Amino acid sequence: MNLTLMVVVIITAMALVGIALGIARIISPRTFNRQKGEAYECGIPTRGGSWMQFKAGYYLFAILFLMFDVEAVFLFPWAVTVQDMGVDGLVNVLFFLVILILGLAYAWKKGALEWK
Which CA distances in Å does 60 have to 52, 65, 68, 98? Predict the structure, then answer.
């Protein structure tokens, strides 16, 4: 990729972002009232302290989602280059999948996937 093409791509990307922001500014509504400036846009004032405990299930569910999201990120490059890697690459990805499946089975057994 030569330098001229790279500069054209960068300038085009910056221009498209600028145009999109400009159009959004032109067509967006410009009304403002006091309730929109509140902490919650619904207009209902909060009661009590804002610090409250969340169940650990929410965090566990998020961690499980991230774990399988990372799995998808790692599997995509492997799928692109699987023909060049041969049997060794297949064995490595199978080992990776076995570890993830064991993690899913453990989470399932512990009830982490149940929404209570």
Answer: 18, 9, 13, 20
